[in-house]
Design goal:
single chain, 242 residues, alpha/beta, TIM Barrel, 18% strand
């Protein structure tokens, strides 16, 4: 296992330190700059463009963030780089551009947004290749068990974690199955805490961060039942979110 204890150290800005997509939009270089300036760790989402280049974007479809219909995976990274996010000056960045901007200043928690085993062939390797030589703290995570398997099979030198939610026994069974891959941390939905699965993992020494904290209730639940939060919409340096 690879130590992910550093995930406990500072709050993690969800999709960068955006302002709920008013002026600074999620997963943009502007949001990542704000997170670096504030000293927050950064959570971001990575998708795969049609030319097999990892780009930083959450949705499968381009409509919500770019105002046009269509599957992101049907466009090249160069085509995506021309699309404005939220009508701002920000464009869809590649993972490589994001890494160059952050340059090790703050830790990165990268969520890989998979589809299916067939569609994601080579995705994990493309992310690992992009990260090669990067000097800074990086953790990789996914909801998708096939992505986690691929990362482990490729010998990821970075901590690999399960992104998950749920409070039912059958869900815990699936999560336990994923943990058998030798995962290093967990990112869990705060509203499903506490539960027996997370309690057992923490007892075993697995770091747990939560998603997505937007108010004081969620922050309190995180620090009672987990180790650190992924937050948005407030500044954790203030005593209490509004």
């Amino acid at each position: 296992m690879t130590s992910a204890d550093w995930l406990k150290d500072v709050p993690v800005a969800h999709r960068g330190n955006h302002d709920l997509n008013n002026q600074v939009w999620e997963n943009t270089l502007s949001a990542f700059t704000r997170a670096c300036d504030a000293g927050f760790a950064i959570e971001c989402d990575v998708q795969l463009a049609s030319d097999s280049v990892p780009v930083v974007f959450h949705d499968n479809d381009l409509q919500r963030l770019c105002g046009i219909r269509g599957d992101l995976r049907e466009r090249t990274s160069a085509e995506l780089a021309m699309l404005a996010v939220g009508g701002t000056k920000d464009r869809i960045p590649t993972l490589k551009q994001m890494l160059k901007l952050v340059a090790g200043r703050v830790p990165l928690v990268i969520e890989i947004k998979g589809r299916s085993s067939d569609e994601d062939d080579g995705f994990a390797d493309a992310v690992l290749e992009t990260l090669e030589g990067y000097e800074g703290k990086v953790a990789l995570m996914s909801f998708d068990h096939h992505i986690l398997r691929d990362l482990k099979a490729s010998g990821s030198p970075y901590p690999v974690g399960l992104t998950a939610e749920g409070n039912k026994p059958e869900e815990f069974f699936a999560h336990d199955e994923a943990m058998q891959l030798g995962l290093d941390f967990i990112s869990y939905y705060w509203g499903h805490l506490p539960n027996s699965f997370i309690s057992a993992q923490r007892t075993a020494g697995i770091p747990v961060i939560t998603w997505t904290v937007r108010d004081e209730n969620a922050r309190a639940a995180t620090y009672t039942h987990a180790d650190q939060m992924t937050f948005e919409g407030f500044d954790p340096r203030t005593p209490s979110p509004t």
